[in-house]
């Protein structure tokens, strides 16, 4: 295993010009508000028994990159809106050219062990990848909060304590091909490779919401997320979903707004510049290209929350679900 890199190194510029880092460089491996040299704070929100509350240095697992040939602009994307996105040629495409939904060949996935190289991480997209600019991107926090705010990426990175840990993401449709062989669902044929583990770095959603002054639990019972994509579902909408407030605010849940994956800024397919990571939940709850966080009384009203990310009882087929205005059996 390669030795870990120096803790205070500067993250290199993002490889795509339209997804560039800000002109004024700053260290994505530090948090100005932490004031403790990168250490995790001890206190009421920490139940760590580690000496001095110092978490593991996961970079020894992902740096340098894990012997994977570089991603390239795939000729199959030339006639699509994703022609600018670099992708690994070994990924198995499951829905034709567009949108891009893919998984790594199982032998390649298994050969890398615990940590999956980012180029081989499975991808679930509902539409075109948004072109993002780090220097102009903002995340709005609004709804039932006392201090609504629009955070720039620099404010998000430097204004909150950073945390980093490995998380396994899995599409709820993993191995659906086998399910469809027994009984056809309305989802496409995922194989066994829609599962990947990488090391995510970001800031706790709980910290962001507390700074904005979330209103009482009796009123503000849900936290809704909205991405940047323009999607066709429901006649046209953004991708959105929600979590219960109790999950979003639970310090043991480690829900984060992630801006790094395996020690690098997020790749376009994985949500650059920022996405939600919710350990223990299906990938469909982890909104990519995050633009808005809305604290609300009710769950998200997004088409993709109510109708596109549901696993229904075995007696409910797509026809019955649509007739009763329920969800489909597609999952992200």
From TrEMBL:
Coiled-coil stretches noted in the UniProt entry, renumbered to this chain: none
Q: Which domain of life is it from?
A: Eukaryota
Needed cofactors: Mo-molybdopterin
Query: Which InterPro entries does the UniProt entry name for this protein?
Result: Mopterin_OxRdtase_euk (IPR008335), OxRdtase_Mopterin-bd_dom (IPR000572), OxRdtase_Mopterin-bd_sf (IPR036374), OxRdtase_Mopterin_BS (IPR022407)
Q: Please give one Pfam family short name.
A: Oxidored_molyb
Q: Where is the Oxidoreductase molybdopterin-binding domain?
A: 126-304
Which protein are we looking at? Oxidoreductase molybdopterin-binding domain-containing protein
Lineage here is: Eukaryota, Viridiplantae, Streptophyta, Embryophyta, Tracheophyta
């Amino acid at each position: 295993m390669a030795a870990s890199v120096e803790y205070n190194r500067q993250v290199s510029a993002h490889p795509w010009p339209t997804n560039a880092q800000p002109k004024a460089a700053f260290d994505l491996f530090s948090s100005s508000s932490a004031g403790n040299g990168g250490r995790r704070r001890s206190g009421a929100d920490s139940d760590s028994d580690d000496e001095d509350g110092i978490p593991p240095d996961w970079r020894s697992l992902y740096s340098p990159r894990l012997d994977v040939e570089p991603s390239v602009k795939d000729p199959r994307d030339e006639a699509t809106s994703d022609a600018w996105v670099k992708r690994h040629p070994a990924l198995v495409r499951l829905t034709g050219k567009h949108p891009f939904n893919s998984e790594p060949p199982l032998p390649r996935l298994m050969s890398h062990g615990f940590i999956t190289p980012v180029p081989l991480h499975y991808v679930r997209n509902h539409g075109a990848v948004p072109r993002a600019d780090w220097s102009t991107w903002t995340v709005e926090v609004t709804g039932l909060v006392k201090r609504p705010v629009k955070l720039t990426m620099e404010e998000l990175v430097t204004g909150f304590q950073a945390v980093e840990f490995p998380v396994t993401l899995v599409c709820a449709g993993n191995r659906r091909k086998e399910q469809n062989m027994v009984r056809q669902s309305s989802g496409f044929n995922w194989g066994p490779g829609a599962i990947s583990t990488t090391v995510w770095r970001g800031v706790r959603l709980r910290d962001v919401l507390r700074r904005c002054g979330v209103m009482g639990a009796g009123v503000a019972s849900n936290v809704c997320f909205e991405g940047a994509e323009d999607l066709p579902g429901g006649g046209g909408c953004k991708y959105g979903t929600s979590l219960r407030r109790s999950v979003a605010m639970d310090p043991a849940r480690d829900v984060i707004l992630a801006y790094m994956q395996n020690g690098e800024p997020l790749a376009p397919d994985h949500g650059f510049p920022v996405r939600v990571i919710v350990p223990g939940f299906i990938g469909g709850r982890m909104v990519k290209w995050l633009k808005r966080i809305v604290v609300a009384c009710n769950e998200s009203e997004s088409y993709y929350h109510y109708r596109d990310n549901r696993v229904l009882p075995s007696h409910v087929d797509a026809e019955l679900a649509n007739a009763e205005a329920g969800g489909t059996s597609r999952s992200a």
